[in-house]
Amino acid sequence: MRSPVDDSSTAEQRRRDLTSPRTPAKIGLTVAALTGAAVLGVIGVRALSRNSGNVGRRFRHILDVLTNHRLADDASDDAQYESEELVGRTVTISRPRHELYAFWRDFGNLARILENIESVTELDERRSHWVVRAPAGTTVEWDSVIVEDIPDELISWESASGADVTNSGRIDFRDAPGGRGTLVTATIAYDPPAGAVGKLVARLFQREPKIQARRDLRRFKQFMETGEIATSRMNADVPGRADAAARAPVHETAGVPLH
Amino acid sequence: MRALTWQGKHDVRVATVPDPGIVNPRDAIIRVTSTAICGSDLHLYDHYIPGMKSGDILGHEFMGEVVDVGSDNRALSVGQRVVVPFVIACGGCFFCQKQQYAACDNSNPAEKADISEIAYGYPMTGAFGYSHMTGGYAGGQAEYVRVPYADIGPIVIPDGVDDERVLFLSDILPTGWMAAENCAIESGDTIAVWGCGPVGLFAIQSAFLQGAARVIAIDHYPHRLELAKTLGAEIIDYQDVKVREALVEMTGGIGPDACIDAVGMESHGMTLDNVVDQVKVSAGLGTDRPHVLRQVIMACRKGGRVSIPGVYGGFADKFPVGALMEKGLTIRTGQTHVQRYSDRLLQMILDGAIDTTFLISHRLPLEEAANGYRMFKEQQNEVTKVVLKPDGWRH
């Protein structure tokens, strides 16, 4: 892992890139909270291609690992690639641009769709305060300042000085071709902080930003298209992974074993 | 409540679990009155489908009575009887608007959708009781089920119509119907159907209703072949003859115009390719046993159509891509867009054009569901369909 403090010039360059004219590699945005490293895709593809002779076992293994959320542990060996500090993703949402822009511009809405956001408080027209859940029960906080705001087109922001995590991002809204709604592109750039807290935060930010970005964009799409966020929870009483945790059998009627 | 839970390969148990409740505004809670074990549940039972967790509640063919509705659900009301499609579809996304409900972009929860996005390139739709690849939704082999987007999916059943006449609207009837529709049947066509399980049998019925002149059914269980015959099909027992040669002879050298693979990833048969596939799967060197699919592609006529309702999950070895291309075959497949067919098929049932009750061979209380799975797995000749009654176990 690269030392985060040595990276300021690179990150500065990335921030400049982010506000310069768009190229495909740079398009995209997400709130700072969307961050986290694309371990998922990388091990998936690697494991599938590494040895085709074991494809069945690997395929099953990968999917079972994903299913059981043991990804981070299993992925540790694969996570040694360079930390990526710019992530982006585009989704098509079957709603008009102005509606999506308006929802996003009201930052108070975002805690509903962004998984790791504890709260977003608007301080004034351009400033908002973000509290984001980090590993081990900690939180990171910063003030965010809107840099550019073009109604129905884009919002970009950057963190104010003194942020736990220096970050900037933008979200673009463009008409999708063929009347398919709106192309929503989220991009985020960030600097992992130094020190012990920095390591924790880097863990969050470097391991999961792409995963977090695509999940949060899915939730945004779900909410705007269906009015709710899809969940397989069995009921509203049990928090978190209620669908699995709440299912501990009490009395069982076992079938006749086959073996 | 009581529910049938998956514990591991060949290990399912009825257990007491928490009752479901309304989570989202468009939800409904259904008290299940009838639920069936599906052939594709056996793929879970055999652990051929990845993404299962111990404790998952199975079942995706179910119907019952609405006992609670969410605040935004204006389509259903308490007391209505409904059949619930196994595909969970939002109705509002690009795919649902195209009536490709089984491709719904929103019903697989955001944190679960990664699994199938990696496996298949794009996330799959949500479905009841069918692994965490399809969302990890609790299934219908239970006393109660939480049904998301219940304002667009569930099919309201008129009073006085027995459960057993309409239960299969949940999956296997529309699946058989879509399998035939994917054959793009033209007048005078001969359709060959591999597998005379429930979907194969309904595909035979559907093919005739869609205008097929002949249907040829292929299996090796005498009772299932007999059922196919009563539906009007000619039959081939693959243990007696070479299937492709028989089909060539029966069609005067032309071959079947369209072929349906209603078997999927766990083919039977002691052919060389299938034995090799079995060894590979056991050793973790492969995922699927596509013997039937190979045979279908080889047997289909030049320029013909191949329809695949049978479930596959991973990769196929020795896939006859040359025959596929050189003969100019068209392949259509996919999980069933159930909601697309609901109204039409319900009307056909009410009109008496389709009867599906002949299929049901066994009725058990939910409490005996584990034995139901074992019977369905081990006695495929006699056990054509098991219907479970959740309120039966107390009596």
Summary, kept brief:
Chain A has 259 residues and is of the alpha+beta class. Chain A has helices at 8-19, 39-50, 55-67, 71-75, 97-105, 110-113, 195-207, 209-226, 242-245, and strands at 86-93, 117-122, 127-133, 139-150, 154-159, 166-175, 182-191, 252-254. Chain A is 35% helix and 24% strand.
List keywords for this structure.
heterodimer, A: alpha+beta, Alpha-D-Glucose-1,6-Bisphosphate, Chain A, domain 4, 7-stranded antiparallel β-sheet, B: 395 residues, alpha/beta, Quinone Oxidoreductase, Chain A, domain 1, Rossmann fold, 6-stranded parallel β-sheet, 13 helices
Detailed description of the structure:
The complex is a heterodimer of chains A (259) and B (395). Chain A is α+β, with helices and mostly antiparallel strands and 259 residues long. Chain A folds into 2 domains: 4-37 and 83-229, 2-Layer Sandwich (Alpha-D-Glucose-1,6-Bisphosphate, Chain A, domain 4), CATH 3.30.530; 38-80, no CATH class. Helix content of chain A is 35%, strand content 24%. Chain A is built from 9 helices and 8 strands. In chain A, helix 2 (39-50) runs antiparallel to helix 3. The termini of chain A are far apart. The relative contact order of chain A is 0.20. The model of chain A is unreliable at 1-12, 14-53, 69-84 and 239-259 (pLDDT under 50). In chain B, the strands form 4 sheets. In chain B, strands 3, 5, 6, 9, 10, 17 and 18 form a 7-stranded mixed beta sheet that branches. In chain B, strands 13-12-11-14-15-16 form a 6-stranded parallel beta sheet, sandwiched between helices. In chain B, strand 12, helix 7 (222-230) and strand 13 (234-237) form a beta-alpha-beta unit. Chain B starts with a strand and ends in a 6-residue tail after the last strand. The chains are: A alpha+beta (259), B alpha/beta (395). The interface between A and B is large, with 60 and 73 residues. Strand 8 of chain A pairs antiparallel with strand 2 of chain B, so a sheet runs across the interface.
